[in-house]
Write a structure and sequence with these properties.
With about 250 residues, this protein is α/β, with parallel strands linked by helices. It has 2 domains: about 5-95, Beta Barrel (Elongation Factor Tu (Ef-tu), domain 3); about 105-210, Nucleotide-binding domain of ferredoxin-NADP reductase (FNR) module (Rossmann fold). The chain is built from 7 helices and 17 strands. Strands 4-3-7-1-2-6-5 form a 7-stranded antiparallel sheet. It has a 7-stranded mixed sheet with strand order 11-10-9-8-12-13-16, sandwiched between helices. Strand 5 (about 60) and strand 6 form a beta hairpin. The longest helix has 14 residues, at about 185-200.
Amino acid sequence: MSAVKINARVIGQEILATDIYSLVLHAPEIAGQAVAGQFVSVYSGDGARLLPRPISLCGIDAEEGTIRLVYRIAGEGTREFSCLKAGEHVEVMGPLGNGFTLRDKPAILIGGGIGIPPMLQLAGEVKGEKKIVLGYRDEIFLTEEFEACGQVYLASEDGAYGVKGNVLDAIREYGIQGGVIYACGPTPMLRAIQAYAKEQGIEAQISLEEKMACGIGACLACVCRSQEQDPHSHVNNKRICKDGPVFDAGEVVL
């Protein structure tokens, strides 16, 4: 598997919630080899913005040769992407990073905030028993698509949707159990899941959200602390873009 840099054609784009967009690209060279949990680097058309923006893969359709990116406007780069229309082109490199490793165990899929979209592709790939737990700040998005994949439980900060609180509050409230956890979301959420998995003796795979620069592991701008020494840098860290973004929860220090 090797990343490719292509000029992808925009199939379409829609708004899912405030500042949340769903972009579908025709990128057969990427779709044909990508797996859930990987990401792509999307390049700006503005020469003043040299660094690409990493965006997780929400959907992969190898037959149609398309990838789906669901992202939040976080700055001028992603604001530029939100203006892309069908028929236009954007430069994309991928697939990048390592994805989730499927286990033959009852699964708990957990997504929080903009860490929710990459869990949708995984939800479609996990064929056995699974429970899906999604944590939102306020507005919800993608819930109907997740419901087509399995039982969904919601948590929201204000309690407007599901349990009032976070994803672990929902897990405890609904008595959700499983043999493996797959999770993506903000660091505080992942830190809590890391502790919960250790306490329960459950395997957990966590996908880290991090600002990146090169996206291919060369610049060391997106390192996280690790339990073991990295042979590349000879210190206790992992390159999130190259060694991750998915890690065994026991590998990293959050």
